[in-house]
Please model this.
Amino acid sequence: MNNWFSIFMVAIGGATGAVSRYSASKWMLRHTPDWTFPIATFTINVIGCLLIGILAGVGERFSWLTSDLRLLLITGVLGGFTTFSAFGLETFALLRRGEHWMAMGYVGLSVMVGLLLLWLGFVATTTLGNPN
Model:
């Protein structure tokens, strides 16, 4: 497979997924203005998990989901829509292989380290150069 073609497939899919995420979030937020629960992000993440599950199942069962289509749909569209779906698929793969402790560690560390680094980045950027 041509590397430039692969990059093009991911880019087209990524743009499609990102625009879809933006549009879906905007629509949901317009219809749930008083909610404090982050419904748009939650909904997009779980829909992404459903879609990547469907594509993974189709890819395992049928041969028409070529590597080009995987790049376009999974890496591109779903990667632009939500990376949470890839996280879910990777965790599911660990569970299917019987690596339960690895899966729990991956989930726990991803959430804890992600939140810690988010906090560190936030604190570092909001206190740098702040005279108070």
Summary: Residues 3-98 form one domain. Residues 3-31 form the longest helix (29 residues).
